[in-house]
Amino acid sequence: MLRSLWLLFLFVSFLGLGTSAPFVLALGYVWVDTFRPQDVAYIVLNQIPVAMIMGAGAFGAYFAMDRRDPPRPNAMSTLHVLMAVWVTVTMTWGVAGSFGWEKWDWAFKSLVFSAFVPLVIRSRIQIEAFAQTYVFSLAANFVPFGVKTLISGGGYGTNLGLAQGNSGLSEGGLLSTVCLMAVPLALFLAKHSLLMPKIRFMPLAYWGVAGLATVCAVGTYQRSALVGLVVMAFFMFLRSKNKFIYGIIIAIGAAAIIYLMSGAWSARISTIQDYQNENSAYTRILVWKWTLEYTLTHPLGGGFNSYVINSVTLPPNAAHPGGYTEFGRAFHSIYFEVLGEQGWPGLIMFLTIALGTMASMRRISKKTRKDPDLAWAGDLADALLVGISVFLSAGAFVGIAFQPMFWYFVAMGISLNAYIWRVENQAAKPTVGWRAQGSGHPGAVPIGGRIGTAGAALPGRNR
Fold first, then answer.
1. pLDDT at residue 114 greater than cutoff 50
2. Does residue 295 form part of some domain?
């Protein structure tokens, strides 16, 4: 009961604060979309369309109160919108019927809202608030999972987090991927947060969140998590300024995982090397082969959930001496998911968005490297680059292409890119009201085209 009342209080608080600061409603939608209070509340929130209320409020507040200074349209934002259009067009020839429209319902919302985010998330404080909201909404799931993994060792298909069942963040492949994507964001916040109190041990809290996220990912026993973990460690090592310290941390972490995880984890992970005798892995390869053959004759894809029409024939084994055929096996890969559902045009757009965002973040990182006032932007760009790298690697074995986390990372990248452009190209204008407060530096004096305080950014545009 107390949990339900607390969640209701948070929901109402987002709505109330959003009447004076419209971007808060967008943060509220991110919270609802990620944490999903309607699934864990016992009263009120489980009876009303909380996502629709928060989403409608965010759009309505923007158009009524906050339509100033939108980001310039660029290739990434344009492709983002085109992707939402294309996934709708492909449903006109979709092969999965109402089952396909069920996925379209939530995937389309993910695409549309994440495309909307850069319109309202514009200043440094707003970008940080977006990152904070997303990380802590996820933390409600992976912190308890991580703590329980430290106690019990975790397990494949085990629900140790807040969500239950086998969908959303209760599904191990998705949970482990979002955990690893959250790690670089948490470490960025540990170093650059302006919203949290400046107390001595606050960075350790973020490091603790990052550590539990990693433990949670490992504790799911997902093979894709191991791939994502290696990629995350590699890219964070490359992007780190002190490679020696990071190298030591990575080595200690790897040794701890090997030593602490059970024999069941080792046995599960070792099946990567023996995919032909491991039913799940080999079936995925056959499904991917079917998808390639299908798109040779259907290059525009089959719409959402088109995997329901597939069939794969597996070789003989002890249980089936004559071999057997399985029908409707999921794609289990972001690449084959997009290819089978959205065809070659969809896959090209998807890869262009992912790789284009990474290239943009790389440019921002290089551009801001020698500017102390924009060091935070360079570190955030690195965090987003690492997170997307994890998604593209771990996601090669999990069908999560239209889950919100990737598209939120893309949206954050668009917001950051637009912010840097404003810093470089627009003159200072006075900022008043909640927008001045949102800058984190009310009353700051422009110096040389930037706010004259450490860590601030665009004067008069920090909205």
1. yes
2. yes
Residue with structure tokens 């900022």? 431
Residues 369 and 375: their CA atoms lie apart, in Å, by: 6
Q: String of b and e for 202-228 (b: at least 16 CB within 10 Å)?
A: ebeebebbbbbbbbbbbbbbbbbbbbb
- Count up the domains in the chain and report the number: 2
Q: List Cα–Cα distances, 69 to 122, 271, 460, in angstroms.
A: 9, 52, 11
Q: Classify residue 159: in a domain, yes or no.
A: no
Q: Is 74 exposed, middle or buried, given 0-12, 13-18 or 19+ CB atoms closer than 10 A?
A: middle
Other CB atoms within 10 Å distance of the CB of residue 282: 16
DSSP 97: T
Token pair 């009201």 in the structure block, residue: 433
Give me the numbers of helices (H) and strands (E) for the chain, helices first please.
Answer: 16, 4
Structural domain of residue 10, as residue ranges?
1-68
Q: Residue 431: pLDDT above 60? A: no
* 5 within some domain: yes
pLDDT higher than threshold 90 for residue 124: yes
Torsion of CA 164, 166, 167, 170, to 10 degrees: 50
CB 287 within 8 A of CB 295: no
Please report how the helices 404-425 and 75-89 are oriented relative to each other, as an axis angle in degrees rounded to 10.
150
In a domain, 163, yes or no: no
Query: What H or E segment, with its residue span, contains residue 326?
Result: strand 324-327
Look up the pTM and report it. 0.86
Instruction: Return mean pLDDT, the chain.
Output: 83
HSE at residue 226, side-chain half, CA atoms within 13 A, is 14
